[in-house]
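Suppose a colleague, Dr. K., hands you the sequence of a protein chain of 189 amino acids and asks what its three-dimensional shape might be. Before reaching for any lab equipment, you can write down a predicted structure in token form. Begin with the sequence itself:
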Amino acid sequence: MFARGDVAVLAVADGAGGLGDGAKAADVVLERVRDAVLDTTFDLLSVARWRELLADTDRELEGIGETTAVVVVLADGMSICAAAGDSEAWLVGASSVTKLTANADRRRLGSGLARPTSTAHPAHPALRERLVVATDGLFRHVAEARILEIANAEPVLRAANALAESTRLPSGERPDDVAVLVAEPQERG
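The predicted structure, expressed as tokens, is then:
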């Protein structure tokens, strides 16, 4: 997670095994996101700029490795979601889920074929949903109803760990690697 002023930027990247150096590719994505946040000339609230950043990173990673990427920008009154690959971002309410990455192209950055998507979403002042940003290790191996249950039952500071732990098999192993970020709106006083 990164921040500039009142704008928070959450990002996950999941390098693909067996396709070059996926771990390095994931690290590059997170470095590019960090660099964008630190660059005061980069417009954090521009949907097009985030799509361009991921498209540029796709080209940069060709021959290095492949990775997914999800970037969610949280600002007063809006959010932006940019994505490529099968990592996801969901808004989890008390009884419903809004999949911010539902229309994301599933081709990974570094493939040279990625078509990153980015969309803006207005935030309703009464929004009480939690944002869950995670790799496919969560979304492929835990049922939507269980994700909704855990995200709502746990205090936000424990929710990410609880969601990650929910992927464990009875043997204690995980079927896939997993990274989870959880955020919720702050009460304004």
